[in-house]
Amino acid sequence: MRIGIIIVMHEEMSVGKHDWYRKTEWSITDEEQFFARLSRSRRDDTRCQYLRIQALYLANKQPEVALRLLSMYSESCVGQFDCAEAFSQQSVLFFRLGQTREALLSIKRALEHEESQSWVKTDAYLTYTEMVILGEIESEYDSALKLLLKSAGRPFFPVQHFRWNATVALLLDARGKHDEAVKHARLAFEAAGIEASVLRYHRTLGLVGEDQIPLLERLSKFTQA
């Protein structure tokens, strides 16, 4: 990580005194309590972060609620340092719900915000290209490959190397460049096999997990003789 660059990572699922904006269940009472606490926050940037973090914790079980919170974020928090991450989260939720057009619009907003805030770096570029591949959005293939090649030096964690090489491999293969695609597929499989992070005291951080199964399944074509 470079000095002077803010790396926006997903919040770790920890518990403690801040549980009020890290709820994993969402009832009417939970909602009332959340917004009551939110209204007492004095700083705009803090309120925005609470919305984004709470949406992250509800993403798997209650994506519709998470999207509503992120919609509130997009209405009042444009310009905050974690804007790119918020729109990226939103795009993933839209994509899971089959709303591909909305997902693409959101991830492009994430990329635009990251471009305008050069000190912030997120995985939006990987989310976009992965979405293009998994959604088979062929009209975006050239743009996705161009963005990946431009960002070749960005991956740091094994999962980032996996996603980068996997999407490059699949995009190259779609363009008929099979030999080059195979090289990147091999690098992707190598990254997927790494069992310890590069960070000494966080050995499980940034490894390839179950959420990458769809991309691994697409890569399986390169293992077939």
Record keyword descriptors for this entry:
disordered N terminus; 225 residues; mainly alpha; two-stranded parallel sheet; Serine Threonine Protein Phosphatase 5, Tetratricopeptide repeat; 59% helix
- What is the second-level CATH architecture of the largest domain? Alpha Horseshoe
* Major sheet: 2 strands, parallel
Strand coverage percent: under 5%
Number of helices: 10
Q: Helix/strand/pairing class, anyone?
A: mainly alpha
Helix content: 55-70%
CATH topology of the largest domain: Serine Threonine Protein Phosphatase 5, Tetratricopeptide repeat
What is the general shape?
globular
Radius of gyration: 18 Å
* Span between termini: 39 Å
Encode the helix/strand succession as letters: EHHHHHEHHHHH
- Domains counted in the coordinates: how many? 2
Give the gist of this structure.
This protein is mainly alpha-helical. The chain is built from ten helices and two strands. The protein has helices spanning 28-39, 44-58, 63-76, 83-96, 100-116, 124-134, 141-150, 158-174, 178-192, 213-219; strands spanning 6-7, 120-121.
